Amino acid sequence: MRQLSLLLKRETVLTSTPLLTSTPLGDGLELRPGGSWTAANVKSLEALSDGVMADLDRSKSVKLDMNGLGELDTLGAWLLEKLSRRAASAGHQIELVGVAENYAGLIEEMRQVNRHSPAPARAPNPVFARLSELGRSAVNATDDIAVFLQMLGSLFTALAGVLRRPRSLRITSLVYQLYKVGWQAIPIVVLITFLIGAIIAQQGFFHFRKFGAESYVVDMVGILVLRELGVLIVAIMVAGRSGSAYTAELGSMKMREEIDALSTMGLDPTEVLILPRVVALVCALPILSFIGSVAALYGGGLVAQFYGDMAPAIFIARLHEAISVTHFKVGIIKAPFMALVIGIVACSEGLRVKGSAESLGRQTTTSVVKSIFLVIVLDGLFAVFFASIGM
Amino acid sequence: MQPAVPEFAIRVSDLVVGFGRQVVIDHLSLDVRKGEILGLVGASGGGKSVLMRTIIGLIPRRGGNIEVMGQSIGDSRERSSQGAAARWGILFQQGALFSSLTVRQNVQFPLRENLELSQALMDEIATAKLEMVGLTARDGDKFPAELSGGMTKRVALARALALDPAIVFLDEPTSGLDPIAAGDFDALIKTLQKTLGLTVFMVTHDLASLNTVCDRVAALADGKIVAIGPMRELLLSEHPWVRAYFHGKRSQMLQPQASSKAS
Question: What is the pTM of this model?
Answer without folding.
Answer: 0.69
